[in-house]
Amino acid sequence: MKKRIVIPLLLMGCLTIWGVVPTFAQSTVDPQLLNTLKTAFDNTKAATSMTVSVDATTVRDGQTDTTPARTETDALQMAANATGWDVSGSRTTVSNVPANAANNTAAATQTTTTEFIVVDGKTYIRFTAIPDSMTQQNLPKDWVAADQLGRGQGGQGQGGGRLLGNFTSEGSLLLPVDSTSVTAVSEGQADTLDGQNMHVYQLTLNPTAVANSDAASLLTAAFGGGGFGREGNAGQATNGQQPPPASGGQQGNNGQPPAGNGGPQGGFGARFDMQNSTINLTVWVGDDNLIHQIQSVVVVTPSANANTDANAPAPTAVTVTRMVDFSHFNEPVTITAPQVAATS
Prior knowledge:
Elements: H1 31-45, E1 49-60, E2 70-80, E3 85-97, E4 108-119, E5 122-129, E6 144-145, H2 160-166, E7 182-187, E8 191-193, E9 196-205, H3 207-211, H4 217-220, H5 268-271, E10 278-286, E11 291-300, E12 318-327
Antiparallel strand pairs: 1-2, 1-12, 2-3, 3-4, 4-5, 5-6, 7-9, 8-9, 9-10, 10-11, 11-12
């Protein structure tokens, strides 16, 4: 089995969202259901190619308007190579940054669109929409190799670890679906999607297990999505994970999680209140035993010491809702490196 690399991208959890998905009866972990789901995840990761679309929203707890703090739209084509995925796609983020009286900043809406290509593990990017607040970062409008970007351009000096690994796969497929991570699973009413019959499952995951897995960025992304009541500094890394540009947050530590207690993902234990965070999934599995859709709902609650910026508003919980569609499996796809602009 090839190991897929995380993209990053976010999860979700709002009670109102259940109004648009099937209703489930509560159950404990059924080994047979869990094995069925694990097989579907494995089969999907073993596909030779696929098309992926992602729609995500982030909402702060207690915000007074209905506008999401952040929205993200991704469109990806993925083709398997010898060690992982070649990827071609784009990401548009819209961040609604609240006013911050302490910093004398007004409310603002920031839209950023990034196009990216990953070939044999090397990432190429260009920015086709850049908000005014980021113009001084000199972000590339022509294709460049991401590892050549400097500090302030999303390169290695500024949370580049997440940027360079962020566009290389769909992180939802890396969620730990096993008996040590899933705390509840049940099967709901069958559905139809893309003209195919679907088995629909609901899962509840242990947040600590996810934080210590290859899908950890789906949790940490909440910190960079205008979450925890922070106004953010567009495009700066947040708690060790750089959000896509213009998504808010603070500078991290070269893309690595901060040191702390909490296992492999160290800083998570200090940043999250795991006992009051939740992760719920709804998964659509076709008769072809492939995953066609994942709806994830994550409520991330900060710990008491999550706010390290004295000028930032008090941290608040965030709800990240994320719908991921998978289609066009095993079709011929060729992804090639772009023509890179000359660098001085």
